[in-house]
Every structure is written in structure tokens, then in C-alpha cells.
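re: ur question from yesterday

yeah so i grabbed the chain u mentioned. its 399 aa long if i counted rite. heres the sequnce exactly as i have it in my notes:
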Amino acid sequence: MRKNIPRSLKIHDREKVSPQEPVANRLRDIRTKQGISQAELAVLVGLTRQAIYAIEANQYLPSTHIALRIARALKCRVEDLFTLSSHEEMVEAEFIGGAASWDEPTRVKLSYVGSRILARPMAELGDVLNFVMPADGVILERIKKSSGRKRLHVQVKLLNSPEVIQKGILIAGCDPALFLAGEHVRKVNALAGITNWTMGSANALRALQRGEVHMAGLHLVDMKSGQSNVPYLKRHVSGQEFVGVRFASWVQGLLVHPGNPKHIRSVEDFRQRGLRLVNREMGAGARFLLDTLLQQSGLSGAQLLGYAHEVTSHLEVARLIRDGMADVGIGVEAAARHYGLGFIPLREEQYDLIMRREFLQSHPIMSQFLDTMVSHSFRREIESLGGYTVTEIGKILDW
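ran it thru and got these C-alpha cells back, copy pasting raw so excuse formatting
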């Protein structure tokens, strides 16, 4: 392979990085998001793999000619890959989320929501994503609160370019399929980012109303009408200010051990002595369903072992059952399949994404995200997870 590389394109066709002009280099980030290896990029550009490694390590800068070749191969602009930046590019942001340790730098995800810049600790993404998703910045210090401020402000050293951060969409919700949506959007726009902050439906909607996220995912069923989300939205959210988009319909039910050794068929079977429940947090659609079924069965949470054991996602419910920490919980079929559990369906629900109407026009990649949702490849992958129906995906909801 190497003998076919033109001499003019070998590793020496670069400039050494000048310490006086620091360069923000996003080559590795954009390449990996597109699923391209160093060796594959080297072939596309006409370089050695060692040359790609050296460029990504900021040991050398590519010449204009090579930079253009790399940008063409990655379907982006040169300035998306390499920009001049300050060693200490800083931004002031509102701190959102739980307590942070102010004795050491805290990694954060940044979001531009309207006119606000919000910083949330990466640790709140969960144990896995905290280590696999790059941070946008690091909190260096708290800013003394002024009399007019209600929220703590922090000084953040950027680890990502403001342009990339501005193209991010922050979604609050509990559907694990939202993580896949982010990967599909990046196939269209390498700089796009979808971050899913896992939380239950009611809490997600409150976060949207507070202006802390761009979208909120809901699955709250009105027990009188049997309709999902719209009755709840009519009671709590202005239809002039907000709009909904149908994401998918899914089946929610009881997650049990493989083979269902406890012979659980309904909530009525929760009366079994020693049966261990794992519950969702207040405000979650699964918690709302459980409490409704318990009331209909004449049971109370106080009678159930584990009712107070709360977790914040469908996948966490499934994981605890798989690990033998619980016997039953409520969640979606896709979570049961992922962990090899038994599943007893209870009902079908609609999962909808709610946003401010203004974001349809003002957010730089919202239209790309919505187009990706209705794409054939994304719909096919969502259905393959199990328990999802996407016939109405992309449908606009008004109330």
C-alpha cells in the first residue's frame, strides 16, 4: 500500500505546530464519530496511517492541500477540523444538575438553549456514557452570585469548539432508542450532537419548561380516555408555545427473570411473599402505570418489598433484574430483550418528543434531526430493537 502513495503526500507534507498559534484539532473526534479508522482515512486521503496519527496528535499540521483532502474524505469543512484557538478559551455558563466537587475540575456537557449557556456534569449521563462521551469543557471555578441571579454560574474551559456545541440538541427522556438517534444524525452531519439526559416523563417536561433542554420525551397515558400525552399536555403546557412530534409507539410491561420462575402474570401476583420489586422514580411514565395498576388491584406500595427502590431508566430496571437484585419491574420490551429477560406486555403507549415551537426554526440542526427520525434506515433500526412501532414517527402533535 505504501509504495502507491505519492511522495508529495507522505508524512513530511505538513508543518510543525507553532506554539505561538495553538490549533484546535477535531480530526480524531470527527473521524471516530463517522466510524472511520485511521487506516481507512489514510487510504482515502493518500497518506500513511502514521501520518494520520501524527496529525491527530497535533505533532504536525497538514498542508493546505492535505487538509482539503481530509475535509473532502470526511465530508466537512477544513475549519471544522482545524481552527486557531486560545490556550484558555473560556465561557461563562449556568450550572445545572446535582452537586459538583469544587476542589477539582468537573467535566461538563454544555448546551446552548435559547440565549442561555448551560453546564451539566458529565457524571449525570451515567456510568458508561460518562467515560465514552467526550466533555465539552471543564469547570475551573464558581462565579460569585450577583443579586439578580437565581442560579449558580461557573467558568468553563472549553474542550470543544463553540460552533459544535451550538449544534447540539439536549433531550430529556427515558427512551434508550434516543441514543441511536444521535448516531444516525451524525451520519448526516459530523458536527451534530444529540445528548440524551435520562429522566422520567414529568421531570423531563419540567426541565423543558425551565429552559434546561431542547426537547422532552413523554409517555403518560390518561386513564379515562386511554390517550397518550396530549391530555396531560393540555393540562400543563401551552399549545401555542410548544409542539409535539411522535417518536414511536412501544409496549410497556413486566420485566421478569428468564422463564418467569415466579409465575408473574399481572400486578395481582405482586402479593407473593418475598417478591422483590425495582421501581422507577416519581414522575416516570412507568411509575405512573405501576401506581395506577396497584390502585386498581387494591394494593399499596407499602405492601411491596422494593417499592422504595427507585432507579431512573428502563435499562437500569432490566439490569438489576438480570443481576438478581430484583424479581420484577415495569419497563419497555426493548430493555427486556437487551438483557435477555422475560416480558409480560401490559399496554401499548406513544412516546412523543415535545419542544418549543421556536426551536423548529432557530436551532441549527433541528430540521436534520427530524428528517433523520423519519429516514428508512433509522425506522428500520428502531423496529429491530423489539416492541417499537414507528408508523406514525414524525407526526406533528398540536393541542
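noticed a couple things. Residues 361 and 367 are 8 Å apart (CA to CA). also The first helix runs from residue 27 to 33.
anyway ttyl
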